[in-house]
Amino acid sequence: MRVLALITAIVLTLVTSSDAHERKLSLVVGFTAGGTSSTAARVIAEEVEKNHDIEVMVENKPGAGGSIAAGYVKRQTNVQTLLFMSATSSLKVAPDFGLVPIGVIATYPYVAVIKLGAPGTLDAYMERAKSDSSLENVATAGAASIPHLLGEKMFESYGLSMRHIPNTGSSQAIQGVYGGHYSMAIVPLPDFLPFKDNLRIVAQTNQGLATGGW
User: Closest Cα partner for 118 from 142, 141, 102, 134?
Assistant: First the structure.
């Protein structure tokens, strides 16, 4: 809540310092609607609109693990009422990219999810993958994203080569597994929860892979 209050204060400063008649804010998200980042952005937008006379527009600009949105925000000039809902994946842009962090909204683990009929443990899954190459097809929300790198590391530790399929968002990657197009998806845990009755977690960060997302 402290971070939300801080962001609200900054939003008010941005809007107040701009044209008094333009009480509008654009909040850019680097992933498709329905994902963790987009959901968090809409929570912020609702809170700001509910408590202040400010219109907040959430803009989804998915692709390249958040880098397309980061580049878009960077290219905008003389725009004071513009915020970027970033995620860990967007860190592949240079550290001196020119974006200034405000605060962390939420943290979460990443999970590797598979269909219910797949081998029940990660060891069993990887053992079968040695003779069934289709199990090496793994979807994430973008190339060079944290889930992509996690998958490469995970498969390499078993002596296997992952075949990566980048998507424009985690929900698309999960739906691809549910529909049988991919064997595994590596996604933020909150994006998996709507599918928990049809898919299952076979690996999770901080349970063998020491990292997480924000």
Answer: 134
Nearest to 67 by CA among 40, 104, 29: 29
Position with higher pLDDT, 87 vs 42: 42
Cβ 64 vs Cβ 143: under 8 Å:
yes
Look at residue 181 in the predicted model and tell me its pLDDT: 94
Least Cα distance to 110 among 210, 204, 208, 35 occurs for 204
Tokens of 197: 């009755």
Tokens for 79?
A: 């725009």
Contact 83, 26 (CB under 8 A): yes
- Tens of pLDDT, residues 4-57: 555 555 565 555 554 544 678 888 988 777 777 777 788 888 888 887 778 888
| Of 141, 149, 147, the residue nearest 66 (C-alpha) | 141
Q: What is the pTM of this model?
A: 0.69
Q: What are phi and psi of 184, to 5 degrees?
A: -150, 150
Side chain identity, residue 3:
V
Please give the Cα distance from 42 to 96 (Å, whole number).
28
Q: Which of 172, 181, 149 is nearest to 162 (CA)?
A: 149
What is d(CA 53, CA 16) in angstroms, rounded to the nearest whole number?
11
Q: How many Å is the Cα radius of gyration of the chain?
A: 19
